[in-house]
Specification:
Largest interface: A-B, 54 and 54 residues
Distance between the termini of chain A: 48 Å
Strand order of the largest sheet of chain A: 1-2-3-4
Largest sheet of chain A: 4 strands, antiparallel
Shape of chain A: globular
Order of helices and strands of chain A: HHEEEEEHEEEHHEEHEHEEHHHHEHEEH
Radius of gyration of chain A: 22 Å
Number of strands of chain A: 16
CATH class of one domain in chain A: Mainly Alpha
Number of helices of chain A: 13
Helix content of chain A: 25-40%
CATH architecture of one domain in chain A: Up-down Bundle
Strand content of chain A: 15-25%
Oligomer: homodimer
Chain lengths: ~375, ~375
């Protein structure tokens, strides 16, 4: 553990002037008998969520993906000549999976925490043994999706509980991605499930193709797409109207937890997409009304729930090995999340816990105003 | 000028430990041959916008008025026994007018700036000579309303250009208000126009009466009410749905100027009002749709204007004495406001300037995204 910062400093970071500075910013935690030191913010050229396991194994964070607000001309400005691959972006929980060398793969959250539950799910649902035997330094970047996950709850047809989709494979120490075509072939050859590839086109024709893809995804209530250069290094994301409205409803349901930036940024995405997709303004009013309903209805519903002393917060289901489901609940509580366990049952070998992450700020502030507290501007 | 801080310290502030601390926080400006030192934030028990004129005359800031998010039980919690007066709250520009002793009244903005234009308008439109002769230490707190003002543009029936409404009279040095009934009598006796008084009731019956008033004001597109204890010291405000939607439209028209808190706080007011006023949810969907239209339509319109290289920003009209209208434009530019003069005409003795306050952040950031800039989260 003590040399995590030096490990990072020695192997990776030409800009760092001092390992002590890195050491100071690493947050340490122990899970599954492993000592982890994670970087909570991007620093010295290292991505947020970069983590060192047992002082030796570096696991780079997943880079932040920039967003296009309008497709034309952003795609052409963002990508050089060549082609652009368009893949589906899934609404789930972004994890990185590595094998430090002992055949026991570990799964890390976006912010660099070793998650025992996701680790168990990855070991159970993905055939990782053969993959890491052939590619020991790889980092498998996957989205945990489906209605039964402790982090997100988006439905996908064909996913009754939860599943992984591998959207990237990188070198765990350098963060360098595999080219898109090699990555897709490799995942296919090991049977790792992947998000859909819509196609590869010249940058000039990408906006039209993405627009078609987005309209289809929008009808099915899905999130959006990620565009990638063939070498996998340049990325750009773009999302559907349905996703923007779902995000607003999500934020409005626990308004005092999500922050104001969350609200503003979703309204902004909607406005730029409406501008680009709806040149004659024919659908603009309908879109505006849907947006208003997404914002106000869940907010009022939450006030009613607080007034009736019902619980407020997002409901989740964790399903899996009893020990690891227990570890998950401990893991969430260790971050200060208050949990209401709504159901705790056995189905065969599995423990299935339905729980609410209590939205404490929303509950307490809404209660304060309903009890006659004033808002002082 | 040099003794502005000591003047404040000596006369007013029992908590200040050091006049140097006050001096450090005073912002100095000269207007109309007067040296002013204003406090940009509340400090040491002094309100934001407290100003010292020529080192001698203290003009207290107008206190921040807390807001009710629900009327019941907030009114009963906020006011002690006794009665509560309910007056209309007007959507205009809040100014304080004092006479430092030479018969030349001066008008100060909420943040404590001496505004030459508003001063000229106050001297022209209000009969202040007799008032200050009888009450030399008074501070007249008034709203500048109407479609032709350099600060706000809300229409009021019967106000073709602009007018004042006096909503409070206080001691300029202590900030102590006149009781509501004495203030209304005094203003009436000097012919100073006032906002409407809806009535005075026991706290328990105020929510019902305010709700009636709010529903009437809402239909006419007006802002709301201020509730006051009879002595004028305890205040509480509450606003209409029409006002919330107008504010959202205003913010959405120049989205990168207004800030995220602005958006969130207006949605919050709507949600609590919808919860309280619409118990059966019959009007909730209509309210939500109106809210969505208020947000998205002006935002998309602004993007279209930037795309077409048209100007973006709020349009205003300044009408009055040519010299003072010129001083107003200089005053605004001195705060870094970029102005587009759209028309500059004479009508009789008056100069009438129609101008746009250019929304530079909205123009530049919208242009950046339309040119293909990405949004990095």
């Amino acid at each position: 553990m003590g040399n995590a910062a030096e490990t990072l400093y020695d192997r990776l970071d030409p800009d760092a002037t001092d390992p002590a500075d890195l050491a100071e910013h690493l947050e340490r935690h122990d899970r599954l008998g492993r000592g982890c030191a994670a970087l909570p913010d991007a620093r010295h050229g290292l991505e947020r969520g970069t983590v060192v396991v047992d002082g030796e194994t570096v696991v780079r964070g997943y880079p932040s993906v920039p967003r296009a607000l309008v497709l034309d001309p952003t795609v052409a400005e963002h990508f050089d000549a060549g082609r652009v691959a368009v893949e589906e972006k899934l609404n789930g929980f972004n994890v990185r999976i590595v094998d430090p060398g002992d055949g026991d793969p570990l799964a890390f959250t976006r912010s660099g925490y070793l998650c025992p539950y996701t680790t168990d799910r990855a070991r159970t649902l993905l055939d990782l043994g053969a993959f890491f035997a052939g590619h020991p330094d790889a980092m498998v970047c996957a989205e945990l999706i489906g209605p039964e996950t402790p982090y997100t709850t988006h439905d996908y047809e064909g996913v009754d509980s939860h599943a992984f989709r591998v959207f990237d494979v990188r070198d765990r120490a350098t963060g360098e991605p595999l080219p898109v075509d090699r990555r897709r072939e490799r995942c296919a050859s090991y049977g790792l499930p992947q998000p859909r590839l819509f196609g590869e086109w010249e940058p000039e024709s990408v906006p039209g193709h993405v627009r078609e893809a987005i309209e289809e995804l929008d009808e099915r209530g899905r999130e959006g797409v990620v565009m990638k250069s063939p070498d996998g290094t340049t990325m750009l994301k773009y999302t559907t109207e349905a996703h923007h409205h779902a995000e607003l409803a999500y934020a409005a349901g626990t308004p005092f937890e999500r922050g104001r930036d969350f609200l503003f940024s979703r309204v902004m995405r909607e406005a730029f997409q409406a501008y680009e997709f709806d040149e004659d303004g024919g659908r603009l009013r309908e879109r505006a009304r849907d947006l208003g309903e997404s914002l106000l209805l869940p907010f009022v519903e939450t006030i009613r729930e607080v007034a009736a002393d019902e619980g407020v917060g997002d409901e989740h289901v964790a399903r899996g090995d009893p020990e690891h489901v227990g570890a998950l609940l401990d893991h969430l509580r260790s971050f200060g999340v208050e949990l209401d366990v709504l159901a705790d049952e056995r189905e065969g070998d599995e423990r299935v816990v339905r729980f609410r992450k209590v939205a404490e700020s929303t509950r307490d502030r809404t209660r304060h105003y309903l009890d006659g507290g004033t808002y002082d501007e």
